[in-house]
Design brief:
There is one protein chain. The chain is an all-alpha fold. The protein is about 70% helix and about 0% strand. It is built from 21 helices and no strands. α1 crosses α12, α3 crosses α10 and α6 runs antiparallel to α16. The longest helix is centred in the middle third of the chain and has 36 residues. The C terminus is likely disordered. Belongs to the monovalent cation:proton antiporter 1 (CPA1) transporter (TC 2.A.36) family. GO terms for molecular function: potassium:proton antiporter activity; sodium:proton antiporter activity. It catalyses: Na(+)(in) + H(+)(out) = Na(+)(out) + H(+)(in); K(+)(in) + H(+)(out) = K(+)(out) + H(+)(in). It is a multi-pass membrane protein.
Length: about 525
């Protein structure tokens, strides 16, 4: 008996090893094929991974006699604990902070208020249409969860096409809204799950709103505090004197700790790790040695890249999960109807806030180059039509138990979510690059808008202009400054929030937490050997 159990365990372990080998080989294949198709007019790595995942799922289905399409069993922990943190952290770590915070109010308008509008429209539409279709026994909490699930956008395809230097305003809005949108959707989803919404009254509604804002603000503050703590520790101990490995390890572990602390305190890990990334790139990253900067920049980007490919590859395979499709096999027409309704609600919900909120945002802007043109509004609308891994993970959380379900209504929602994610990512994704090229043709002479952050992870050795105070090299040779940057400088008021933040930052924050121009000086250290830093 014991020998039989042991042999079955060994066989199970071996099958897991075989699955992991195949999955890693597929990841390598996605990267190679994605690289070969990089210049394609239509394809990108997300779509490549999805297509390879679907093809692999078909092969597995055929070889197992239609029993399974998976190499790995879906796990919410795998997604939320291991795959999502590096993606969101890298988004904050690589963001061009001046562009992000200059457009912060517009980003919050789209990412928070817009998501709430979209959530309301999708939830109301689901209640109206799904009850008439009689798809199963869904409660009010399920309908609200559907609104949160399909409010979570995936703007990866559009960001791969847009250029930060050609369209800095548009890129900043699409990128920033995408992160805030994901965080808002997850916070909404968590708030829905933590309340009994079968009997809604004014008290429960107020508690719901209060809980939403509490999660939003607390998560942001936790990310900022963790980022500042990492900067303070590295600045005071200056690990670079002894070991570059230690300071790189501390940065990676502190970044991950911020996410896990948020989960521990039932906050939004997405918001926490995003703002931790912003703070780390502003303070901590400048406190480490130059070799550590290069290492962390590429380490975070690589982890994020692999996690994204992993997610899309799995979603492609999961689309063919025979168990869920078998539950609804008697009514394929109803399944198509539900997916079509969801796609229609996504289109309407997106348009309902992008164009009105863009109009409101433009009313507050005086300079023409700060206003969002109609073609840019269409691009922002299109960028938010795709649904991805966050929607999938939330749907699994709400409608399955450990990835499995036999309840008809739940199976219908899971298969519809898979259909919407596949259709929006592949069809809308394939059309993104041609659409953006039509709406926003590249100028013949690229006028790069220069950032105020000379040594950010994305622009490592580029000395740039900052509030009229450039590097010594620039002050000695003003001809290197491009006209677009000077025009931007002259049209930007000096007494702005950014200006006063800079004064506060230089006077109080950087002397304590380090940052550009406040790196610890240690005789014989890599900092000294590399010469003075940009001030």
């Amino acid at each position: 008996m014991a020998i039989g159990i042991l042999s079955s365990l060994l066989a199970s372990d071996h099958s897991s090893i075989v699955s992991m080998n195949l999955f890693v080989a597929l990841l390598c294949g996605c990267i190679v094929i994605g690289h070969l198709l990089e210049e394609s007019r239509w394809m990108n790595e997300s779509i490549t991974a999805l297509v390879i995942g679907i093809c692999t799922g078909v092969v597995i289905l055929l070889t197992t006699g239609g029993k399974s399409s998976h190499l790995l069993v879906f796990s919410e922990d795998l997604f939320f604990i291991y795959l999502l943190p590096p993606i969101i952290f890298n988004a904050g770590f690589q963001v061009k902070k001046k562009q992000f915070f200059r457009n912060f109010m517009t980003i919050m308008l789209f990412g928070a208020v817009g998501t709430l509008i979209s959530f309301g429209i999708i939830s109301a539409g689901a209640i109206q249409f799904f009850k008439e279709l009689h798809i199963g026994d869904l409660q009010i909490g399920d309908y609200l969860a559907i609104g949160a699930i399909f409010s979570a956008t995936d703007s990866v395809c559009t960001l791969q096409v847009l250029n930060q230097d050609e369209t800095p305003l548009l890129y900043s809005l699409v990128f920033g809204e995408g992160v805030v949108n994901d965080a808002t959707s997850v916070v909404l989803f968590n708030a829905i799950q933590s309340f009994d919404l079968t009997h809604i009254n004014s008290t429960i509604a107020l508690k719901f709103v209060g809980n939403f804002f509490y999660l939003f603000i607390s998560s942001t503050l936790l990310g900022v505090v963790t980022g500042l703590l990492s900067a303070f520790i590295i600045k005071k101990l200056y690990f670079g004197r002894h070991s570059t490995d230690r300071e790189v390890a501390l940065m990676i572990l502190m970044a991950y700790l911020s996410y896990m602390l948020a989960e521990l305190f039932y906050l939004s890990g997405i918001l926490t790790v995003f703002f931790c990334g912003i703070v780390m790139s502003h303070y901590t990253w400048h406190n480490v040695t130059e070799s550590s900067r290069v290492t962390t920049k590429h380490a975070f980007a690589t982890l994020s890249f692999v996690a994204e490919i992993f997610i899309f590859l799995y979603v492609g395979m999961d689309a063919l999960d025979i168990e869920k499709w078998r539950v609804i096999s008697d009514s394929p027409g109803k399944s198509v109807g539900v997916s079509s309704i969801l796609l229609g609600l996504i289109l309407v919900g997106r348009a309902a806030f992008v164009f009105p909120l863009s109009f409101i945002s433009n009313l507050t802007k005086k300079a023409p180059h700060e206003k969002i043109e109609f073609k840019q509004q269409v691009t922002i609308w299109w960028a938010g039509l795709m649904r991805g891994a966050v929607s999938m993970a939330l749907a699994y959380n709400q409608f399955t138990s450990l990835g499995h379900t036999q309840v008809r209504g739940n199976a219908m929602m899971i298969t519809s979510t898979i259909t919407v994610v596949l259709f929006s990512t592949v069809v809308f994704g394939l059309m993104t690059k041609p659409l953006v090229r039509i709406l926003l043709p590249s100028p013949k002479h690229l006028s790069r808008m220069l950032s105020s952050e000379p040594t950010t992870p994305k622009s490592f050795f580029l000395p740039l202009l900052e509030n009229g105070q450039g590097s010594e090299a620039e002050q000695g040779n003003r001809s290197v400054v491009r006209p677009s940057s000077l025009r931007m400088l002259l049209t930007t008021p000096s007494h702005t929030v950014h200006y006063y933040w800079r004064k506060f930052d230089d006077a109080f924050m950087r002397p304590v937490f380090g940052g550009r121009g406040f790196v610890p000086f240690v005789p014989g250290s890599p900092t000294e050997r590399n010469g003075p830093q940009w001030q």
